[in-house]
Design brief:
The chain is mostly helical and about 180 residues long. The chain folds into two domains: about 1-95, Serine Threonine Protein Phosphatase 5, Tetratricopeptide repeat, CATH 1.25.40; about 105-179, no CATH class. About 65% of the residues lie in helices and about 5% in strands. The protein is built from nine helices and two strands. Strands 1-2 form a two-stranded antiparallel ribbon. Strand 1 and strand 2 (about 110-115) form a beta hairpin. Helix 1 (about 1-15) runs antiparallel to helix 2 (about 15-25), helix 3 runs parallel beside helix 5 (about 65-80) and helix 7 packs across helix 8. The two termini are about 35 Å apart.
Length: about 180
């Protein structure tokens, strides 16, 4: 199945969404979640609402209670400027009690794994984390630095190991590379 998903993904990335649909229709095996999700993702990138709805409908049939499938279609609607369709889908999701689980990241520091959830502010060091994050952002803006790290995760990691201050973005980057 993985090879089929790769072909749908490649066709989708190339903007050949109709070819991807024809490929799916002619597959020797029934398409699974990965196939339809790949097509829906490509439809979102290329804002093809009609094929996106087809892919989403198939996902909904397979997994009617998986909120992340609905979020993909919702994002397509929003990005295509279809506010009414987006609002209707949100209402339907609420009525069905569907939600998307928050994003999660983890980091290992000194052989201990810490897990962080999107929007989590339960850490006793939340205020310090956000103060440090703001300081990093300001420093990066002043130095026009292009750091690729997830800053929130990085700040938490630096605080966790007792790294209390950052002199500049280069030091930040060196600290990140040590992980």
């Amino acid at each position: 199945m993985e090879h089929y998903i790769n072909i749908v993904d490649l066709l989708g990335r190339a903007g050949r969404l109709n070819d991807a649909c024809v490929f799916i229709e002619n597959m020797a095996i029934a398409p699974d979640r990965g196939i339809w999700l790949s097509l829906l993702s490509a439809c979102r990138v290329h804002q093809n609402v009609e094929l996106g709805e087809l892919a989403a409908h198939n996902l909904f049939k397979m997994e009617p209670t998986r909120g992340s499938n609905y979020i993909q279609l919702l994002n397509l609607y929003v990005e295509a400027g279809l506010k009414e369709k987006a609002a209707n889908l949100r209402t339907m999701m609420r009525q069905k009690g569907l939600t998307k689980l928050p994003g999660c990241s983890w980091i290992e520091v000194k052989n201990k794994v810490d897990v962080f959830f999107s929007g989590d502010s339960s850490s006793p060091r939340t205020v310090k984390i956000y103060e440090t994050l703001d300081s990093l952002r300001n420093s990066m803006k002043r130095k026009e630095c292009d750091c690729e790290a997830d800053l929130k995760l990085l700040v938490r990691a630096l605080l966790k190991i007792g790294f209390n201050g950052l002199v500049n973005c280069c030091m930040l980057k060196k600290s990140y590379e040590r992980f």
